[in-house]
Amino acid sequence: MSSLIFLSILVFAVPLIQHVTCDPVKDYLLPIAERLRKMGEKAYKEEERQRTHPDDADEGTVAEDNARLVRDVYAFFPILMKYTDLHRAKWLKTPTWESDGVYENVAVIFKIWSLSQHFKREELNYQAQFEEDLAMVGGGEMKTGKAAIAERKKKRREGQAKKDKHANSIVIACLKRLLPVGLNVFGGRELDIVQQCKEKFLARENEEKIREFIRELLEIPVQVCF
């Protein structure tokens, strides 16, 4: 049922965003982003407590908190992504603390998602349910039978199944939309550091070495020429 709500948002709510004449960032988008961030922080805190103190934590509560978080993320992020596409140029030209705040909250949600096994698992479950509901209402086709099984086995042999399973995350997609807004606060030196780090991550260098690389660069004083 929740994935059908997501489908309704995609079909009916998202197209209406282009007709919004007021600026809803301060009164609506930012408060919702903050609420989702707090939900994510609470869910991850409980997940960590379950990991470190399994006897004191309720696994059902952890799963329920993350399932609710995923539902709310999938209700809000499509609208936020559409609004960002329409107004990103304006935000880049005239930055505001509200638009920066939206980015910061989404970035925190992404960080939680990247660390949380439950968050990612519940999102995969949600995506699977959405595909089933989409097929049920005639919006797509479910691959079943021997052909689908053979295809999954082939992907598994090629090592693609694990690699691609989170590629369609809406958390990643939303952060990508907002990333220019977040990078807009950086100067030339910071952007150069970001680019160098990006290249190191793409080269799959050790993350701790990259962190040390960043610390060393940030400790170098900026030379001012007179």
Automatic annotation (TrEMBL):
GO molecular function, one term: ryanodine-sensitive calcium-release channel activity
Origin superkingdom: Eukaryota
Keywords: Signal
GO BP field: release of sequestered calcium ion into cytosol by sarcoplasmic reticulum; striated muscle contraction
Membrane-spanning ranges: none
GO CC, one annotated term: sarcoplasmic reticulum membrane
InterPro entries: Ryanodine_IP3_receptor
First and last residue of the signal peptide: 1-22
Record protein name field: Uncharacterized protein
Organism: Panagrolaimus davidi
Lineage of source species: Eukaryota, Metazoa, Ecdysozoa, Nematoda, Chromadorea
